[in-house]
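For homework, think about our next protein:
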Amino acid sequence: MKQLTIFILFFVVIIFPMACKKNSQNNNNSALLIGKWNNISTYKSDGTHLRSWTGGQYLSLRQDGTFDEYGNIFDFASSSASSAHGGTYTITDDSLYLTSSNGRNYNFKVQTLTNSSLVLRKKYNTDFDVLWDYSK
């Protein structure tokens, strides 16, 4: 009986607060992500500049789990004109998952997230990562 009491006490004091803290962090990240993010630039993780965005490119994340995007977040190297996309998103831990309306899935690591700055990172292969820099 004493071992059972110690186990329950351990669970309540150690395990339960850790589970609640992680959920709280996800809620904070979700709240910070909501809004319209203006794309500033795209670059490789080694600092190589790929593209500056000056044509109103953005990523808009709504509270209902849907998004709109105007730009080329799905094709960073494209030299074609920006285009509009939409779909749904989810956030877990430090990842943002976008599912476009055409059914394609994209996974980004949220590298930086503050009230006014968002940096998304995506690994394209073993050669390099691409980062998208946004501001509100």
The beta strands are 35-44, 49-52, 58-61, 66-71, 83-92, 95-100, 105-113, 117-123, 129-135. Residues 2-33 form the longest helix (32 residues). The radius of gyration is 19 Å.
